[in-house]
Amino acid sequence: MKNNTKISRLNISFLFLLTCFTAVLFVSGCGSGVVVDYRDPESVFKAGVAALNDNDFIEAQKMFDIVRLQFSTTQYADDAQFYLAELNYKRKDFIISAFNYNMLIRSFPTSEYAKRALYKSALCYEELSPPSDRDQEYTKKAIQAFSEFQTIYAQDSLSTEATNHIVVLRHKLAEREFNTTLIYRKLYSWRATLVDYDALME
């Protein structure tokens, strides 16, 4: 009888420890001191935002990735995608940031963040735009993104700002074309110079 009582107590103790262990797996604290319930996408997302505000980028990215991958059909999926792009932007990882902004636009075209994502992607390309004497691929991508924003959100207040960015970027392209014509002139390639002047005027 005593043996049965001991076994029963051991079983109860084991079940108690197992319950506690399971609870720790599902509810724990993150680096920002926020209690996270990993079964709840809202809890995980808020923990990511808190970590981002504390500049704890590694923890924030982990939280946003959990929401994107494990809760991709919930209302927090586009939030996590946008804030992940914001995290990259804050870290000045502009290539990855542009990728994540564009990923949001493709995956969640009706998201409340779609407009901001398009504009911020253009800003990313502008940040990547090099001096005029180097390849201008990102300059052209920035112009394209700002122009697309103006087409879709013509009445938005940011449309005017987009125009200002486009003017600066086009000036950089024109400067490159002009410098190229000077090089051709020095090489006495008059035909190439005329072609390049036509491109500059355009």
Care to describe what's here?
This protein is an all-alpha fold. The protein has a domain at about 1-95. About 75% of the residues lie in helices and about 5% in strands. A two-stranded antiparallel ribbon has the order 1-2. The longest helix has 29 residues, at about 160-185. The chain starts with a helix and ends with a helix.
Please describe the topology of this protein.
Layout: H1 2-26, E1 27-29, E2 35-37, H2 41-53, H3 57-70, H4 77-90, H5 94-107, H6 114-128, H7 137-152, H8 158-186, H9 190-201
Antiparallel strand pairs: 1-2
Helix pairs in contact: 2-3, 2-4, 3-4, 4-5, 5-6, 6-7, 7-8, 8-9
Quick structural overview:
The protein is mainly alpha-helical.
Question: What descriptors fit this protein?
Answer:
202 residues, mainly alpha, two-stranded antiparallel sheet, 9 helices, 2 strands, 75% helix, 3% strand, elongated, disordered N terminus
Helix content: over 70%
Number of strands: 2
One letter per element, helices H and strands E, the order comes to: HEEHHHHHHHH
Largest sheet features = 2 strands, antiparallel
Please work out how many helical segments DSSP would assign. 9
Strand order of the largest sheet: 1-2
Low-confidence stretches: 2-7, 12-28
Please identify the structural class as seen in this structure: mainly alpha
Rg of Cα set: 27 Å
